[in-house]
């Protein structure tokens, strides 16, 4: 099949809205509230019911068209309903959807394709495990693998981190707001400092040194260390924590410490992988190779799929060492290969790098004139805008106003950060310059209006 140009993927008229939410959306949101779990999150803040998606655009049930700057939390890197992807997934669905872990052409082709784009130190030197379909499942696999290989059960993660909401992944996640009702979780978990330049009045070098010193103490200080560390889990750029980009030297320092103390470094690429940051993997920006790397979200290009890539020397599991019913969902594996091919064919890594820089440049112009824009940061199309009040403190209410104003004008953004005050932008990598310019203009106007 011909690989369509990115300009041909979208609803051309987007954004085009008429006082959303419309009556059909309101009715379906009410119905959802009546019959579904109260844990449903997104419609409580953006009360819209969707009907269709194309590329970087969405249509709701009332016919309103939106620019999508969130892409299902970075799931749809090659866009909604990309025909090059859906063709292969549909064909596979009609032949063999599910095959556990028996060998199939889609499965083996995906493993070989992932090896081609693996971090340099893992290329030709890795194994891949498919377990459950979510990122949390992949993180659970990393915990089991690290424990199995080291014989230890101490887990080191970072403040501000998010690794999922199953029991083990939640233990690594550092969010007491949501974790508190479910404790105790896994024992022997410690959270070290993650360098957050905007939040602290120290130089980048000082922040890195402080963070690494904490990890070193946990790994090796006689009177402060874990007695049994199994590994260090880190996001190369924190996602839910507010798109926090660590200074240079941090990830490499962790790599060195893990080597010194002979524990695996687990780099969580669930959000940052598959080209999101302008590199295949976030760790590539820092020339660091993880020992273990969970993958999900954009891996399946809209279909549920997660996996764990790890160094060949850690492949000590016996058959059945880590399994899951849906570890053989072939349509998602076909979709994954097609999405990688599409990214390569259209050089979307370069496109994400340039478009992300263009977006950040425009937002930094606003930062220079509007004191409520505290910080603009990110890599590629993984972007955060931290909003603050007149005293420079987190402004979650301002963010809520901005988000509402954006969707009322046809642009979908989401919130993140430790204080829910960071606008998160994760558009599909197929977003065009024109769409980005239009959407960012609406975001800028929303910030200006809400702070005037």
TrEMBL record:
One MF term from GO for this chain? Answer: transaminase activity
Q: Which Gene3D superfamilies match?
A: Aspartate Aminotransferase, domain 1, Type I PLP-dependent aspartate aminotransferase-like (Major domain)
* InterPro entries cross-referenced by the UniProt entry: Aminotrans_3 (IPR005814), Aminotrans_3_PPA_site (IPR049704), Class-III_PLP-dep_AT (IPR050103), PyrdxlP-dep_Trfase (IPR015424), PyrdxlP-dep_Trfase_major (IPR015421), PyrdxlP-dep_Trfase_small (IPR015422)
Q: Keywords on this record? A: Aminotransferase, Pyridoxal phosphate, Transferase
- Superkingdom of the organism of origin: Archaea
Cofactor(s), names only, from the UniProt record: pyridoxal 5'-phosphate
User: Has keyword Transferase?
Assistant: yes
Q: Which Pfam families match?
A: Aminotran_3
Which PANTHER family is this protein grouped with?
A: ACETYLORNITHINE AMINOTRANSFERASE, MITOCHONDRIAL, AMINOTRANSFERASE CLASS III
UniProt family annotation: Belongs to the class-III pyridoxal-phosphate-dependent aminotransferase family.
Q: What is this protein called?
A: Aspartate aminotransferase family protein
Q: Which organism is it from?
A: Natronoglomus mannanivorans
């Amino acid at each position: 099949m011909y690989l369509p140009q990115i300009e041909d993927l979208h609803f051309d008229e987007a954004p085009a809205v008429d006082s959303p939410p419309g009556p059909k959306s309101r009715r379906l949101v009410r119905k959802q509230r009546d019959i579904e779990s109260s844990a449903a999150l997104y419609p409580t803040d953006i009360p819209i019911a969707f009907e269709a998606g194309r590329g970087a655009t969405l249509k709701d049930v009332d016919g309103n068209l939106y620019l999508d700057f969130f892409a299902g939390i970075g799931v749809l890197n090659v866009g909604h309903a990309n025909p090059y992807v859906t063709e292969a997934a549909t064909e596979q669905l009609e032949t063999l959807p599910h095959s556990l872990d028996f060998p199939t052409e889609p499965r083996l082709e995906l493993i070989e394709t992932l090896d081609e784009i693996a971090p340099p130190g893992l290329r030709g030197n890795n194994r891949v495990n498919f377990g459950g379909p979510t990122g949390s499942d992949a993180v659970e696999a990393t915990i089991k693998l690290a424990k199995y290989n080291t014989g230890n059960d101490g887990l080191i993660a970072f403040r501000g981190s998010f690794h999922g909401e199953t029991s083990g992944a939640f233990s690594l996640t550092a969010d007491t707001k949501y974790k508190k009702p479910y404790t105790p979780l896994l024992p022997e978990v410690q959270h070290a400092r993650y360098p957050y330049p905007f939040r602290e009045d120290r130089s980048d070098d000082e922040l890195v040194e402080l963070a690494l010193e904490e990890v070193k103490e946990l790994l090796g200080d006689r009177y402060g260390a874990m007695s049994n560390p199994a590994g260090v889990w880190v996001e190369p750029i924190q996602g839910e924590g507010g798109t926090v980009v660590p200074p240079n030297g941090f990830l490499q320092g962790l790599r060195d410490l893990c080597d010194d103390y002979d524990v695996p470094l687990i780099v969580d690429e669930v959000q940052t992988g598959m080209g999101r940051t302008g590199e295949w993997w976030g760790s590539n920006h820092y020339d660091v190779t993880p020992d273990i790397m969970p993958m999900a979200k954009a891996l399946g290009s809209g279909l549920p799929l997660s996996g764990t890539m790890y160094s060949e020397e850690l492949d000590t599991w016996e058959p059945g060492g880590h399994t899951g019913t849906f570890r053989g969902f072939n349509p998602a594996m076909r979709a994954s290969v097609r999405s990688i091919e599409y990214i390569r064919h259209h050089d979307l890594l370069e496109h994400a790098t340039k478009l992300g820089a263009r977006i950040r440049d425009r937002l930094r112009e606003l930062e220079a004139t509007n004191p409520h824009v505290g910080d603009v940061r990110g890599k590629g199309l993984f972007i955060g805008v931290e909003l603050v009040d007149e005293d420079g403190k987190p402004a979650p209410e301002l963010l809520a106003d901005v988000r509402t104003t954006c969707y009322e004008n046809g642009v979908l953004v989401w919130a993140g950060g430790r204080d829910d005050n960071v606008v998160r932008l994760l558009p599909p990598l197929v977003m065009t310059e024109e769409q980005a310019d239009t959407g960012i203009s609406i975001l800028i106007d929303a910030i200006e209006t809400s702070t005037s």
